[in-house]
Amino acid sequence: MPVLCLIANPIDSELDPDLAAAVVQQTGGELNWLDHSIACEIIDPLSTEALSLARAVIGTRKVDAALVPSEGRRKPILVADMDSTMINEECIDELADALGIKEQVADITDRAMRGELDFAAALDTRVALLKGLERRVIEEVRRERITLAPGGRALIQTMKAYGAYAALVSGGFTYFADFFAKRIGFDEAVANVLEFDGDRLTGTVAKPIVDKTTKRQRLIALAAERNVPLERTMAVGDGANDLDMIAIAGFGVALHAKPAVAAQAGIRIDHADLTALLYLQGYADEDIVR
């Protein structure tokens, strides 16, 4: 039985009872609010075109729509990207800013995330530009420039409260991933290792690098280790290097992703924050650990 989810950003919701009712009128099904004015679900819509009908009714309003199966909806495994997913920034761009070369590095990052450049080569190129950056500056960037994405801690803490396992698997760096994984509540973190000569970056990263293949393989391995079929897993990310894990997860979510990435994902969230991943799973407001 399918479930149609309508989800808005809690900070500036454009989802109201009138809009929800208008969608139901087009799709059929039973309306149930998960969080009033933020998220609702339409259970067993009658139309086979429910998702496209919902998006047509929504129009330009900042409301996401997703169609998910009701069976096995709550996922016991989550694998998440870090940069621009669980945190708001791209860490390497902020490190480059400390050297006055953010624009140059950010352009490479953007092209890599759109899938226009080989990820490994783009990473090596950008890290080489950071050669000589001091450890204390990296710590300063981590402390002062990196912010947690809204809803991330609620997502992880709620899923863990209901028995899920959460892994942060990032093409970024352990210097950030280990720190923010602990703050958010992840069970593990996997990321690339920056190499130092004393207290300065050498401009290299340890091999092999964490890339799209690593992300996909870690999701597969976690599912096998925990005896969970892949259709019972969830993966979320925003860039081209996340597509391989998004493609095989039961719920593969492109969050605030580049258009080309969002177009290939089973589920796209363009407006809502990370709590959207809870509503997709059928969690209601009273279930969420905040």
Low-confidence stretches: none
Structural class assignment? alpha/beta
Task: Report the portion of residues in β strands.
Answer: 15-25%
Placed side by side, the strands forming the largest sheet appear as 7-6-5-10-11-12
Radius of gyration: 20 Å
CATH superfamily of the largest domain: HAD superfamily/HAD-like
Main sheet characteristics: 6 strands, parallel
Question: Which geometry do the CA atoms define?
Answer: elongated
Q: What kind of oligomer do you see?
A: single chain
Question: What is the CATH topology classification name of the largest domain?
Answer: Rossmann fold
Using the 3D structure, state the CATH architecture of the largest domain: 3-Layer(aba) Sandwich
How many domains, as an integer?
A: 2
- First-last Cα distance: 30 Å
Report mean pLDDT, rounded to a whole number.
97
| CATH level-1 class of the largest domain | Alpha Beta
Number of strands: 12
Contiguous helical run count: 12
Please estimate the helix content: 25-40%
What does this structure look like?
The protein is α/β, with parallel strands linked by helices and 290 residues long. The protein folds into two domains: 1-71, Alpha-Beta Plaits (2-Layer Sandwich), CATH 3.30.70; 74-290, 3-Layer(aba) Sandwich (Rossmann fold). The protein is 39% helix and 23% strand. The protein is built from twelve helices and twelve strands. Strands 7-6-5-10-11-12 form a six-stranded parallel sheet, sandwiched between helices. A four-stranded antiparallel sheet has the order 2-3-1-4. Strand 11 (251-255), helix 11 and strand 12 form a beta-alpha-beta unit. Helix 3 (91-98) crosses helix 6.
